[in-house]
Amino acid sequence: MISDFAIWIFSISIVVIAAFFIWSARTQKKRQLLHRLLLFLAIAYVSWIIPLMLMRVTPSDNRTLMYILDCATQPGGSFCPPLYLCIAFVFVSGNEKLAKWQKALFILPLLTTLIAWTNPLHHLYYEEFSVVRSEVVFGPYIMISGVASYVFLIVAIIYMIRFGLKNKASLYWKQCILFCISGLCPLAVSAYATFSGKDISIATTPMSFMVTLFLIAVVIFRLHVLDIKPIATQHILNAISDSYIVLSDTGLVVKYNRNFEELFGREYGITENKKLVDCVSREDIVQKSPIYNMISALESSRQGDSLISYEQSVTFDTEEGAVKRYFVVDVSPLEVNGQITGFVMMFKDITQLRNSMKRLQDSQERMMEQERFAFLGQMIGGLAHNLKTPIMSISGCISAAEALVDECEESLTDEDVSEEDYREIYGEMREWFAKVKESTSYMSDIITAIKGQAANISTDENVTFTIDEMLKRSMLLMRHELLNSGCKLNLNYDRNVEISLQGDINNLVQVIGNLLSNAIYAQKQNGGGEIEIEICTDKENLKILVKDRGVGISPNVIDKLFKSMVTNKGTMGTGLGLYISNAVIRGKFNGEMWGENREGGGSIFGISIPLELVHIRETQQINEG
């Protein structure tokens, strides 16, 4: 019969289970499937041990009541093994719904309960019932019921061992070992009670299942199979990624969310408890290139023990046709005690972002095109203004020459007009023709300047170059003009550092050349002298300054600098140089230009380029490198 010790153990178990139910009702508003299965297992266990406790206080000669209580133990005793197996299935798969075949496992416990209660009609369970174990004669069905219980327990243990072998992370091993021990305990006790031939108390098997219940609770709540930590982690992963997949250190698929299954799982045959490399073969590299990229990223993350990010495009077949989507994939190693135990891959859908960026880029191109047309209009206006004077001059010269030709024709028969008079007329005509040549030469220079500068501004060579290289090119191009003007160029910057820029060196050479040309013109009027190029930095910008000792910038020009095509050179200038130079610095280097009069006479023209486009290194570091 049942000992007092067993009664005490059962009583403690009921109190603990009751406390668990109260705690669960207060803290778990929405229970997950694994949690619900644990609660069902606790209910089955309580329904098993309460009739046993009542049998302890029932007189042994009351065979009818004893039989009823024994039948009352059958639901709990027969439902515990299949519940244990279902917990194993859900633990490994992570599903939130039992499959139909898993639900079919409970048909046998229901049949066992029905046969036990109707035993007097067919004697399939007991041929002879007795409270003394040695006097009990079992019917043929007991073999089916017993074997089924053994199969449930053994399959669950094998399933967990198989899962543990594939997932070598220490956390999984702890969970699997405790789970297997929880199943081995009742399995060993039942086997001993069945095959030892000894008279063992009927309370022994339910007491062994108490160990099962306790260890499963430890696995779920102490090792965080389904408490707030993994739930919070899953919510975080869902929040920061559109889809994710968790893999073991061997590349075994442990878990993924529904979005991943819909996007990749069904498309590429990715399933849980299957290695990622098994989802592809060499014959379908092109079709499954995203999987190969995932495998490569995993290996890179493993070798570097670091986060790996890359962009992946995937083409999906839909009812509307092929749709291409873009993802940013982050591969993060998961470490336990300093060792990589798995990886999490997060997929962020950037398709809409890319489309938005494309629309923004198209919009920017349209704006640049509009700005280009506006600039062209400004240039044509300036060109028309600057060509108007020489054209009018040419027109006046031609009119004067025509008048002289008419005068010659009229005086052909005039005897008073001498040869000297004709020579004087021819001289005047040559003077007018010389003025025509001068004006046409000026027009040619303007057109050449516009053509050359417009061609340079349209180039787009994005390279890394040094300030030294840019200055050497500028000095080479301006050498002849500097020598003819009697000007000397002085470079003022720290030669112990190397300053590098990212952009088009030709554009910057053009801008510096234009500033030097302006400085040479301004200083040539004072007989030449020294022109200084100073290069320095502040907290935000690299500054390139061109300083001269010329006549300075006139007040009516300084406020219009870089805003319209104005010049300080009078008829010798067009104003195009500074206007285009400012557009180059703003458009190609995200910088700005300015001009100001210099203290003591002369002017300063400056260029500011953000330091984010600049790289500065010590010359000593370069030599050591």
Secondary-structure blueprint:
Blueprint: H1 4-27, H2 33-57, H3 63-93, H4 100-103, H5 107-117, H6 119-122, E1 126-128, E2 137-138, H7 141-166, H8 170-195, H9 204-222, H10 228-240, E3 243-248, E4 253-256, H11 258-268, H12 289-304, E5 308-318, E6 321-336, E7 339-349, H13 351-410, H14 419-457, E8 463-466, H15 467-485, E9 487-492, E10 497-503, H16 505-524, E11 529-537, E12 541-548, H17 555-558, H18 576-589, E13 592-597, E14 603-610, E15 614-618, H19 619-624
Parallel strand pairs: 9-11
Antiparallel strand pairs: 1-2, 3-4, 3-7, 5-6, 6-7, 8-10, 10-15, 11-12, 12-14, 13-14
What's the story with the biggest beta sheet?
Answer: 5 strands, antiparallel
Shape: rod-shaped
Distance between the termini: 87 Å
Query: Tally of extended strands?
Result: 15
Strand content: 15-25%
Put simply, the count of helices is 19
As a percent range, the share of helical residues equals 55-70%
What's the arrangement of strands in the largest beta sheet? 4-3-7-6-5
The overall average pLDDT, rounded, is 79
Gyration radius over CA: 47 Å
Contiguous low-pLDDT stretches (5 residues minimum) are 224-229, 570-574, 621-625
Query: Structural class per helix/strand content?
Result: alpha+beta
